[in-house]
Amino acid sequence: MDQAAAQNPSAPREDAGRPEARARTLDRGSDPAGRVPEPPAGAADARRARLAFLVAGGAILLAALLARLAGAGQAFAGGELVTLDGDSLYHLRRMRLIADAFPRVPWLDPLIAWPDGAPIPWAAGFDLLGAVLILLGRAAGGPAGGDLWVAALCPVLGALVVAATMELVHALRPGAPGRRGAALAAGILAAAIPQGLDASRYGRIDHHVAEALSMVLLARWAIAALPPRPERGRRARLAYEIGGAVLSAGAVAVFTGSPLYVAIVLPILVGATLAAPRPPVLGSGGPGLLAGAALAALASAPAVAAHGRALAFGFPSFLQPLLLCAAGATIVGAALLSGLVVPGRGRLAGVLGVSAAVAALAALVVPGGAAQALAGVREWLLEADPWLRTIQEFQPLLRDRAGPLASVNGFLGATGVVAPLLLPLAVLGARPAGRARAAGFLWVVAALAALTVHQSRFGRVFSPFLAASAALGLAGLAGLVARCGSGVRRVAGVAPVAVALAVALLDPRVRGALGTADDAPDAAVEAALDLRTRDPGPAPGIVAPWDLGNAFLVVAGRPVVSTGFGPYPDPVAYWEGVKAYTVEEAELLPWLRGRRIGWVAAGAANLFGRVGGEDAHIPFAGGGFSSRWLQEVRSAPLLIAGSGVPALGVRHFAHLLPIFASSRTVVGMDGPLPVLWTYEVVAGASLRGRAAPGGRVTLEIPLIEHRRPHTWRGFVDADAGGHWTMTVPLPTDLATPTITTAPGVLRVAGAPPTPVRIAEDAVRAGATLELATPGAEPR
To answer: Per the record, where are the segments of Polar residues compositional bias (predicted)?
Structure first.
């Protein structure tokens, strides 16, 4: 029986229109002749209301799916699938690798941390699901079909998040007036919150949306253990534990940090055990988490065999199953203890003792587990890791200089601004489920809200709970308004839906999330597409900024040193890659040769703000270059096509040939400057000549990129005997799709300007060119 109806027999039954309820009514009302009386008018109304709810819910899910498909044209703009960010690119690569090796899951990637290769630190559950879609798509439509299918994975998961959010709110208002309206309002808001929408757009193939879905399902599962709950038979309790096993193991298989989410719902399960008079172990949630730990351990075993890390917070390992096991053991211990102790303070003290005993036993039996768990909290959650501190999504939510309100609105839209104001009313909205369940829901909301304020990345997981909280707040407000009179009751029943629709349709942040990117192409993807057309040669690797590495790896198919994994696969390779952008050419070249790297990607995209001294965040002053930055940073020429700056004494790079310039330019400069260049390592042509002893010799070569004119400059000073040699990597007949050059001019003190032509073949072969500069020879 419905719990609210059991407490209030006069309340209308929510299931009055269900077939089984109607069958019971007909059985009671049929006469011996077999005539069946007409069902009461209320049953027909209930059926119509339920049908309308299902239709409205389906429309919301369809709208959510269509909104997430809005970026399909952008994802396939070049005729092939190019995902919307670097992490998605690597997910796509790994899905393809798994599909090619199916059912085997590769755990080592030979093209990262080049030339040695390295283990993949991500959990494989999300990628395995995508690989299955690729295989199905290939079977239906070839390689293109595989890409089409897998690109739809996140929109579908996003729609499932919306559905799970509606079901959660529906479950928190059993038998209450406006129950369905609150659920629909939650679905509308969950479909429209910018963070949730952005994480599940077509062309974004990332595990965050699956992470959000697993958290909603975990919370729903845990809250169901709280009172009031009906007496459940052994079969129902077994089904509850099976659900917990699948959800907890699935969460870990999607995201190695999911033990944090299990830790959030753990107090709910422990509280349910403490509140029950004689709690059974089966049905407490503890056995489910223990079984989930076993499943997670089986899934992690191949990864551990590949990377050799039995306990590691940054890799799929046995640490995550160990944490699930500790949570399950705590609940089982609490259930056994509660069966012996009368409800009261003694139970709580006993449970705390059980928790401490479980933690101590785990630390004793599994040495290093506690250290790795604490390291995960310190380095990942508290951002002690210097690399994580540089990542935008690990920054606090309220960091916007415009103020906290602008930060919240930027990430979570108007719902994020309004929902905290409705939080007290959300308590009223969830009270029909009982105080314990309402408190359990609000605990999850508060925990995820705190995590989101600390790190904005958690906003993706928080979004459905924010939507649910706002919808329950609107339902609570509607309930207060409905008390004013029967005439207002009907309006109050649809008010949450109307308000949610207004927020979704009028919030400019939501409309912005539905739009596509600006017209300028992504610089890394554009560079990778260019590099894909070039012969890799004996040194096929490329050094690129870590956050751009996946574009060159996946789109260009080139080996890379650093990727979006940062230092996790190979700390040595990562930090060497970081250092490569801070040194002069003489130190850079031997490192490139040692790692078989023939290409360098660099520019304002990774130099300003990451390399340099105190003013590295100030790229230019007064619309021009920062002279101090150019003089202090030894890799500064990589910003400007490898050119030197004779007036500042900044030497040019002699062996890096610029072969690509991005369409996107640096914002805020007087002249256009590409944000990214691709350089090829070449021998360089050696120019020789005579000049006055100590005289300055300058070479200027016109360089045009995307019809934007520049001047490449190199210079050298003659020695005491008047001899000079200048190694030049830039030919005067260069013609690539993005860069062209023209004959240059050699300027020597005391001599007229001399035209210079340098063939590309001479640059690549390392030829020596003798240049005569009449009037410049020493007397």
So the answer is: 1-10
